């Protein structure tokens, strides 16, 4: 109710206030903010990422006062992020400009007409040198709707003291686990078995590794072919033979990581973030903590692992689209992807970043502690790159959210799977979900 | 207080076969209607319109992700929902939570009401303390239950659950949800019942006592019959509320392991699934169920419902 101060804050601040403002300015971002007082704001809505503000500040410097990027942190959990954006986009909110989309949301947002197509020079820039898997996640109906910002792949992690040679296939892995169990050594196969997206990721990886498909190429119909049934058999076998953790159905990424660090498992299927955790929490054993490609199925060669990560899209309701495209491109440029990869552990989508030998500060020599390079932070980068080139994209469909909810529900608990019956159930319920006729549990 | 509560659901008695009204009476009635009009119009705008709009949406295939495929489909959405096992699981879960929690609340609420009613010293303090849980925001309370039952961090989990994680299994989760509901809303029940207790004349109790009725007989033969209207109102309010349970479940389990209520499922389909058709159909079904519950309460137990003549006080 205090009117005068409110007025002075809204209007031009008096000299004293301006002085105070100047005194509290610390970062480059705020400096630019002062320069563009009342200027164009580009609102970026993206998941929390510790050092992303630095990237934003850098891009603001590049913009040179033409616009100011504002980083609005979305909730930490994916559902919360999606819900906030979807609600506002459906209501035509024009204050959102750049959107950080999980790789599974692009078709949904594109089909609903909430995000702009990328064309011309912007498109060329967003596609340049990008790995095919991540690029596929940003594409819908042959058009590009987002610029891949970062990616992620799961690898097989193992302790070389327990198994000097990692298994190549699920069958080998189960056999090795059984042998270890008989010898009374740590033998568990650890993966995300809780009823949530993580279980869908595991299932999708096995399906793709078995050469199968869940949906047709265009995402219009349910296929659930032999490979998909074979994947159900594998999930069933691994969860009913005492090779998994007792609390499997309660395990998300972090519980899986912890179980491995506590020495309960022989094999862990998880994202590369586990390496950094291992390095900081079990540094003494780090040299024995090894990685290998995701296990394959039968004679289909290496496994194909499901891609994660984020893509940046431009909202259709944005009032400043050209600037939004420019800002999005800056936020995911090769240089900034390297910065984020080294500081926040999110693997880049641009191939050349992986082979970039220069450390964070190129003027000084690389040093794992203070001046990391891709080689020091990502010793597994070649395996990641290899996996990315042969990666499995989750089914591309606007109804992915329904699909995923139904799938995690039907697959839970994995030990209750009856391959033929469950496949039939999935066929039915996924078809309903695709037509948005079905009820989401 | 007691009047406001006991007369809340009273409906205007429909006038049957009334004699013709005089000129003055008619003018008075017109004025009355005019004075009511603004309130009635506001009510219509804020409740009637959304309800009608949901019904309209529920008859369409309308998914925000496929805006082009919007079309009128009649009762197809209702068929889809009512023939779906997830819906009936959620319906059963909701019914179970409703019945059990309201039953427990009634017993505890009655005990609390008697205590509050009979307290001689520190009456204000006792009543305030009793009402505290009702004053705490449900989500905040739910989070404290959530952490209390989380292994490692929670004192209840450490003390009672041992190695297991109760919130990851269906039955333990359901009981914890009921516990949270009961803890939260028993004071509300007690408040309504206390209002009913105020209706019981002391003379009646003294007379019964003179006639040799013991405490239990006084309670069952005198208090409960006199309080019946208040008890029914309390039950009705709580049942309607409990059937729409959402926040406790949302925080405690987020619907995992078949613990979702119908409201949660509606939310999942509407907000997460963006399926306005199916979601609205569910919302309408909840509305119908709630209306049915109210109808049953008033018609089946109706003889003693407050406002209806003979039975109650007045």
Automatic annotation (TrEMBL), chain A:
Biased composition, Basic and acidic residues: where in the chain?
358-367
Q: Does the keyword Transport apply?
A: yes
Q: Which Pfam families match?
A: SBP_bac_1 (PF01547)
Locate the region Disordered. Answer: 355-376
Matching SUPFAM superfamilies: Periplasmic binding protein-like II (SSF53850)
Q: Which UniProt keywords apply?
A: Signal, Transport
Q: Which Gene3D superfamilies does this entry report, sorted A to Z?
A: Periplasmic binding protein-like II (3.40.190.10)
- UniProt cross-references to InterPro entries, sorted A to Z: Bact_solute-bd_prot1 (IPR050490), SBP (IPR006059)
Domain of life per record: Bacteria
- State the similarity comment: Belongs to the bacterial solute-binding protein 1 family.
Q: Write the protein's name.
A: ABC transporter substrate-binding protein
Automatic annotation (TrEMBL), chain B:
Q: Where is the composition biased (Low complexity)?
A: 8-20
Lineage at the top is: Bacteria, Bacillati, Actinomycetota, Actinomycetes, Pseudonocardiales
In the record, the note on similarity to other proteins reads: Belongs to the binding-protein-dependent transport system permease family.
Top-level taxon of origin: Bacteria
Q: Where is this region: Disordered?
A: 1-22
Tell me the GO BP annotations in alphabetical order: transmembrane transport
List the Gene3D superfamilies: MetI-like (1.10.3720.10)
- What protein does this entry describe? ABC transporter permease
List localization entries: Cell membrane; Membrane
Residues covered by the ABC transmembrane type-1 domain: 91-297
Q: Tell me which InterPro entries the record gives.
A: MetI-like, MetI-like_sf, Sugar_ABC_transporter
What keywords is this UniProt entry annotated with? Membrane, Transmembrane, Transmembrane helix, Transport
The organism is Prauserella flavalba
Q: Which PANTHER family match?
A: GLUCOSE IMPORT SYSTEM PERMEASE PROTEIN GLCT, TREHALOSE TRANSPORT SYSTEM PERMEASE PROTEIN SUGA
Query: How does the record say this protein sits in the membrane?
Result: Multi-pass membrane protein
Give the transmembrane region(s).
31-56, 86-116, 128-148, 174-200, 274-298
**Record keyword Transmembrane present:** yes
């Amino acid at each position: 109710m205090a009117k005068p101060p409110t007025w002075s804050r809204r209007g031009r601040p008096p000299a004293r206030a301006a002085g105070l403002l100047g005194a509290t300015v610390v970062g480059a971002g705020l400096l630019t903010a002062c320069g563009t007082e009342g200027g164009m704001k580009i609102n970026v809505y993206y998941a929390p990422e510790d050092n992303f503000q630095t990237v934003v500040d850098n891009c603001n410097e590049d913009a040179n006062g033409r616009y100011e990027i504002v980083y609005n942190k979305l909730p930490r959990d994916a559902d919360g992020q999606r819900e906030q954006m979807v609600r506002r986009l459906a209501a035509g909110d024009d204050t959102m400009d750049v959107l950080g989309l999980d790789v599974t949301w692009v078709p949904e947002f594109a089909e609903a007409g909430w995000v702009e197509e990328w064309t011309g020079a912007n498109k060329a820039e967003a596609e340049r040198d990008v790995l095919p898997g991540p690029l596929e996640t940003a594409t819908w109906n042959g058009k590009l709707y987002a610029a891949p910002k970062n990616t992620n792949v799961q690898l097989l992690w193992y302790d070389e003291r327990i198994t000097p040679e990692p298994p190549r296939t699920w069958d080998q892995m189960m056999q090795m686990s059984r042998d270890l169990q008989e010898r009374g050594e740590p033998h568990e196969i650890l993966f995300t078995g809780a009823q949530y997206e993580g279980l869908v990721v595991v299932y999708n990886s096995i399906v793709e590794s078995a050469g199968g498909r869940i949906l047709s190429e265009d995402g219009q119909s349910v296929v659930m072919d032999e490979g998909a049934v074979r994947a159900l058999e594998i999930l069933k076998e691994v969860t009913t033979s005492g090779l998994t953790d007792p609390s499997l159905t309660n395990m998300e990424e972090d519980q899986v990581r912890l179980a491995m660090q506590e020495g309960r498992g022989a094999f862990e299927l998880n994202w590369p973030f586990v390496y950094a955790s291992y390095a900081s929490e079990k540094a003494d054993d780090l040299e024995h903590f090894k990685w290998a490609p995701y296990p394959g199925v039968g004679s289909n060669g290496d496994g194909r692992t499901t891609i994660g990560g984020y893509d940046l899209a431009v909202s259709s309701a944005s009032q400043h689209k050209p600037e939004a495209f420019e800002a999005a491109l800056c936020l995911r440029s090769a240089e900034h992807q390297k910065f984020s990869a080294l500081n926040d552990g999110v693997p880049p989508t641009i191939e050349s970043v992986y082979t970039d030998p220069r450390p964070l500060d190129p003027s000084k020599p690389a040093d794992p502690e203070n001046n990391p390079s891709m080689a020091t932070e990502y010793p597994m980068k070649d395996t990641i790159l290899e996996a990315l080139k042969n990666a499995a994209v989750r089914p591309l469909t606007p109804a992915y959210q329904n699909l995923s909810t139904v799938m995690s529900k039907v697959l839970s608990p994995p030990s209750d799977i009856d391959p033929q019956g469950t496949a039939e159930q999935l066929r039915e319920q996924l078809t309903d979900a695709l037509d948005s006729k079905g009820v989401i549990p | 207080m007691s009047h406001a509560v006991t007369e809340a659901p009273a409906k205007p008695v429909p006038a049957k076969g009334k004699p013709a009204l005089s000129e003055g009476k008619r003018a008075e009635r017109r004025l009355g209607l005019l004075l009511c009009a603004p309130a009635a119009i506001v009510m219509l705008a804020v409740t009637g319109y959304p309800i009608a709009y949901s019904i309209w949406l529920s008859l369409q295939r309308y998914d925000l992700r496929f805006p082009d495929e919007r079309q009128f489909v009649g009762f197809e959405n209702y068929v889809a929902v009512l023939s779906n096992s997830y819906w009936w699981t959620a319906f059963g879960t909701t019914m179970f939570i409703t019945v059990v929690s309201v039953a427990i609340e009634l017993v505890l609420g009655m005990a609390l009401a008697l205590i509050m009613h009979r307290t001689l010293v520190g009456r204000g303090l006792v009543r305030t303390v009793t009402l505290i849980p009702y004053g705490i925001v449900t989500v905040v309370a739910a989070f404290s239950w959530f952490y209390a039952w989380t292994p490692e961090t929670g004192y209840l989990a450490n003390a009672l659950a041992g190695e297991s994680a109760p919130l990851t299994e269906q039955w333990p989760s359901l009981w914890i949800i009921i516990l949270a509901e009961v803890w939260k809303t028993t004071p509300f029940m007690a408040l309504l019942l206390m209002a009913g207790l105020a209706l019981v004349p002391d003379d009646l109790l003294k007379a019964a006592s003179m006639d040799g009725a013991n405490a239990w007989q006084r309670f069952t033969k005198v208090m409960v019959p006199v309080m019946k209207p208040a008890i029914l109102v309390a039950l009705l309010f709580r049942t309607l509320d409990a059937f729409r349970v959402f926040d406790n479940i949302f925080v405690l389990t987020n619907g995992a392991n078949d613990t979702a209520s119908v409201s949660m499922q509606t939310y999942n389909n509407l907000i997460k699934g963006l399926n306005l058709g199916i979601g609205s159909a569910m919302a309408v079904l909840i509305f119908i169920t709630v209306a049915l519950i109210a109808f049953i309460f008033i018609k089946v137990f109706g003889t003693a419902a407050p406002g209806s003549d003979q039975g109650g006080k007045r």
